[in-house]
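Note to self: the last two entries modelled the partners one at a time, which told us nothing about the interface. This time every component goes in together.
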Amino acid sequence: MKKPPKSRPKRVTLHDVAARARVSMVTASRALRRPEMVSLDLRDRVNAAARALAYVPNQLASALASRRTGRIGVIVPSLTNGVFNDYLRALHDVFVPADIQVLVLNSHYMPGREEKAILTMLGQFPEAIVLAGIEQTPHARKALQQAGIPVVQTMELAAKPIDINIGLSQQDAGYAAARHLFDLGHRHVGQISAPLDSRSLKRIDGYLQAVREFGATPMMVSVDLPSSIASGGELLGELLARWPSTTAIFCGNDNLALGALFECQRRGFGVPRDLSIVGFNDLEVAASACPSLSTIATPRYEMARRAGEIILEIIRGSGRRPKQRQIDLGFRLIARESTGELGNSS
Amino acid sequence: MKKPPKSRPKRVTLHDVAARARVSMVTASRALRRPEMVSLDLRDRVNAAARALAYVPNQLASALASRRTGRIGVIVPSLTNGVFNDYLRALHDVFVPADIQVLVLNSHYMPGREEKAILTMLGQFPEAIVLAGIEQTPHARKALQQAGIPVVQTMELAAKPIDINIGLSQQDAGYAAARHLFDLGHRHVGQISAPLDSRSLKRIDGYLQAVREFGATPMMVSVDLPSSIASGGELLGELLARWPSTTAIFCGNDNLALGALFECQRRGFGVPRDLSIVGFNDLEVAASACPSLSTIATPRYEMARRAGEIILEIIRGSGRRPKQRQIDLGFRLIARESTGELGNSS
DNA sequence: TTGAAAGCGCTACCAT
DNA sequence: ATGGTAGCGCTTTCAA
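The predicted structure of the combined assembly is written out below.
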């Protein structure tokens, strides 16, 4: 009788359920969440009441009171380029069976948006957070540290990990890709990239290292926009316009490589006869394309799986961090049909 | 001095920020969330304090107290096939500026998992929910209705919408794709599909309608697995093995079409000389491929944008539903290079 | 413009 | 096994 009539439709709460079952709220709570702690009789009464009232637990309140949200946060720079498909799948494979929800936010390859995403995520109180990349803003780092939850940085190797770090050397991988072309005899090896995020830049460093080593000339075209198939064709066009002698090209990712391949087909260039192409990431399309694309396979599934398992271990187990805080998972060069020895081209 | 020392690392709360800024919690709250209600002086002090402490608002508490979560839920059947990229982007474009968070859950093209996703989502109290597809389980429908929030079903036209429905006729679109091939003179028109979700089946219905109309023979191969480029090649292989006379093929989506195209290149078939290919969705790759892929463009961005705007109107505005509860956005056949008139083949 | 107090719905802690 | 009570961190009246 004390409540003034509100216009908002009342929601059924645990209080209502408890009242109907004629037990205390605590018992009702336990009957629903930890049935083994409640006598069979009361348990049934509570369940019946909950059912009759179509009770929906308010996870917000539950999380606030228990300080456990049952979710982990993931921040990736893109959802649309295929790179993070395996990565997210691995995380789901680990967490869904553990009854932990995976929240994904997209930073769009922009440090500013990543910071915002991290703060937003932290506001949801995930029990751990997985980050793609290692270049968080100082403010984001601080917030992450204060959160006191496991933080796993992935995809790259960090000099100063925030907490745990599982990745690979993007520079070494870029070097390996370029080196593959030089090893095949190419000397006019171009490079195209988009976008110019930190990992791309490191792969470019690797390329430059190989260029230096083989005494070649750097030939690069790039654009700081989301990678796309179309831009692969366009960047290749620009590269060839500037350096017509190019006989091989290292594309910063497989989307660009696919676009470059299509552009070659459009121009009637043979691949690898007239131009060798190596991509990066080993997306599904790389193996399926015709010719199939040589590329660098990065262990994205494994990386995310390991991240997930370490997190699970920490939040379900002792709460203690593993002794090994940094893991290098390496990469693999996959030589397919799109790269070949320097032949009768020029 | 009254708190017993706890082991848990204290988190920075609004209380701490208020204390540091020497204002009340209420003022701190307002300074952060509704700055215009607070004097410039205090506003600055609060902001400075919040920044210095790396304060992260607890959205759980905020949502619990205000009964507004500031988020909307979206459930899509896949995150990996590119189809929902524009769709999600549109939703972000609408909601992020409105300061509403977009939560995305993946149903993996499985009604059971969609039901679970819907229930999970509802437990987070989104202020509205956007669904891809119209075939929710009865239980999910009921829960959705009881939630009392705007529900928008998209991608298809529903006979009995739950609430609001924005889509297109998948059957008509499938018919248009097949019809395009028949109109070019083809009579041996095959069809490949994967996965066999409700929309795929409707597109197949459209194909069958065209087949009937032209007195042709249905030639279909499909598999109920996630679509992939590789399966496009495999399904085409099976189709050709069974019906070698095939001169044209309607692929249930662009991934399959791309795979089919690569398979043709592998076999040395000319496209469209030996085989015409039409896809579905108009993903980025369709325009970039060589030859470019004819396909059906579905208005995914527009569909999601409209959904978002209607929701915004409802939850920000009067709370009243628009008069028009169902919108048909149609589709467009895009004839590119991969389809041509029946020539000197077979 | 600012603040005090009363919850939001639930769970943890401590009794019984 | 069951229940009372005190919050979780924030926003909302309502008063000053």
